[in-house]
Each structure stands twice: as C-alpha cells, then as structure tokens.
Amino acid sequence: KGMATPEKATITLGAMKMLDPCRLKPDSIETERIITVLDETIAKLELSSLIPWIIDSLDRFADMLGPEITNSLIEHQKLSHEVGHLLASSEEGDPLRAEEQQGCLCLLEQRLKCSVRNVLRLLLANPSLCQALKYEARLRESPAEAFIKAFGEFRDFILERLLTSPVEEEEKIQFTEDISLQIKKNTEAITALQAELAAAIRTREEEVHKKDNVIKDLKTSMQDVTKDCKAGIQQIKQEGKKQQKEELHASQVRCARLQQDVQQLRAQLDALVLEHRASELALRKRKCRAEMEIVNWIQKYDTDMGEKQAEYEEVHAAYAEEKAQLSLLMEKHAVLLQEYSQIEEERRICQNKEEQALKELTTRTLAATRIQAFWRGYLVRSLFKSKKKKTKKGKSKKTKK
C-alpha cells in the first residue's frame, strides 16, 4: 500500500505495453489472410448454428428466404431425419445389418455435409438476409454458442501469436520471470513475518508464565500471612486448577483441529499441484498441436494461392490473346460488312434494272402482239371486203345480161 518502486513501475509499464489494444492490428498480408479465414469460419459457424432454428420456423421465414433456399432447407431437414432414423434403427436392429447401415450412414453424412455447404453458400450470397436472420436470433441461446465463443478466443489467441515478435516474446518471458522473482520476494517477506509472529507468541507465553510464577509466590506469601484464609485460598486454587485443565483441554483440541486443517490443506495443495502440472502438460501438447496445424494450414494456403495465381496468370494471358484476336476479327467483320452492304446495294440496283427491263419487254411484247392481231384482223377484213365487192359486181353483171 506504499509508494510504487521503480521495479514495479517497470513491470506495470511492460504489462500495459503487452496489453495495448493498438497492437491487435494485422501488420502483414499473410496475417490479414489468416484472420480473414478465421472470421469467415466464425461467420459460417454462426450461420450453421442458425439452420435448425430456421428449419423450425420455416413457415415464418419462407417469404424472406425465397424458393431456392427454402427447398434446400427442406432437403436438409429430410436428410437430417433420415440420419436420425438410421441411427435409431442401428441402435435397435440386429448386428448382421450393422455394416450395411454403416455404409448408408456414411453416404447420408456426406450428403448432409454437401447440403450444409449448399445452404451456407446460398445464405452467404445474400448478406442482408444473413444480417436479418442474426438479428431475429440475437436473443436465442444456441448449443453451439460455447464452441463459437471458444473458436473466437482461439482466433484472438492466433492473432496475438501472429502479432508477437521474438523480441516481444523475450520481453514477455522476462516479464514472467520478474513476476516470479517478485512472488519469491513476497514469500520470503511472509516467512520473515511469520517468524516474527512466532517470536512474539513465544514472548507472550513467557510473560504469561512469569505472571503465573508471580501469582504462585503471592499465593504462598498469602498463606504465610493469612492462615485463617487457607480454606478460601485452597478453594481458589482448586478452581484455578480446574479452569487450567479446561483451558489445556480446549487448547489441545484446538491444536489437534488446526493440525488436521493443516494436513487437509497440504493434501489439497499436493492435489492442486499435480492437477496443475497435468493441465500444464496437456496445454503444452495442445499448443504444439495447434502450432503444427497452423504451420500446415499456412503452407497449404500458400501452395493453393500459388497455384491459383499461376492459373489466373494463364487465364489472363489467354484472355488477352483472345481479346486481341477478337479486336482483329471485329475490324475484319466491319470491313466485310461494309463490302457486303455495297454488294447488296449493287445487287438491288441490278435487280431493279432487270425487273424494269423485264416489265418493258413484257409491255412491248403485249403491244406487239396486239398490233399484230389488229393488223391480221385488218388484213382479214380487207380481204373479206374485196371478196364481197367482187361478188356484188358479178351478181350485177349477171342481172344486166
């Protein structure tokens, strides 16, 4: 409760530096990618935990979800029921069909996983729908909430590990060592205070013993001075002895109880030490496994991203080449289209001229036919007229004779 020492001030500043929220910001693309993957995983876990609740309230959200998502959820519900029935029948059925049921169960599980992925894909394609569903389910407790919370803590732990440099790790170790040293000093101070307390207790007991001796001397002197009060003094002595025995018995009982408490506390301390050592070993193993998994995931992610980048470059090069070819073909197509238009225009003009010439030829042919017919008729009429005149002249000559 006194003034803070320079060592304590240094430790406090170091702790504040390590717990500074400004440090919890990604400082590299790889860190941002890893954190993005973890955040997307948390979002998918939250949506996955909402699927059973959405299926239970499917009539309520049918208009909001749309026909495609509704059909996918109905199919997912059917698969879930099939898996449940198959599990129930495998527990109650005969063991001869266990292998066949196990194979069917594996197929249904694969279909169920594909159904979950399909539903998540459809939901994530509509961010506003996801926000609305999360808002509707904000007051509902999900069985997977603890797992999602633990995964969020795992995400924060990974972020802290990624943002901790080797120098900061050494500072953290030094900070832990300083804390341990401070605890050791406090323990030594407590031990010294306990020793002082024991010395004070012994001093008090010696003073009490001296007082008892003084009382005995006074009693003896009182016996010598007042023999008449011997009976009263004897009675007082008996009462004092009785009280002393009672106090001694009470002290022995209290000491036995304290000894028993000390033994119980010591046994609890040993059990806690063993438990904490086992927990520390399990946490160390878990930490090693997590680090190995993270390294493997990072390597796999880098490999996949390299392959995707190479594939993207190939596709982009092919796209550029095809785009250049398309531009050349478009230019040629424009030229050919212009030439085709000119040719079509010339053909149309020629066809019009041919039609006009054919029309004129038809008109002339019809006119010539009519003229020839008129001329033939004229010749026939002229021939008949001449014959009629000749016959009339012959008849008149005959009559005159």
UniProtKB/TrEMBL annotation:
Q: Which InterPro entries match?
A: DRC10, IQ_motif_EF-hand-BS
Protein role: Component of the nexin-dynein regulatory complex (N-DRC), a key regulator of ciliary/flagellar motility which maintains the alignment and integrity of the distal axoneme and regulates microtubule sliding in motile axonemes.
Main location group: cytoplasm
Report which residue ranges the record marks as coiled coil: 241-275, 326-360
Record protein name field: Dynein regulatory complex protein 10
Q: Which Pfam families match?
A: IQ
What quaternary arrangement does the UniProt entry report?
Answer: Component of the nexin-dynein regulatory complex (N-DRC). Interacts with CFAP52.
**PANTHER family noted in UniProt:** DYNEIN REGULATORY COMPLEX PROTEIN 10 (PTHR31598:SF1), IQ DOMAIN-CONTAINING PROTEIN D (PTHR31598)
Keyword Cytoplasm in record: yes
State where the protein is found.
Cytoplasm, Cytoskeleton, Flagellum axoneme
* Native species: Cochlearius cochlearius
Q: Which PROSITE patterns match?
A: IQ
Q: Does the keyword Cytoplasm apply?
A: yes
Q: Supply the alphabetized keyword list.
A: Cell projection, Cilium, Coiled coil, Cytoplasm, Cytoskeleton, Flagellum
What family is reported? Belongs to the DRC10 family.
Spell out the SMART domains in the cross-references: IQ
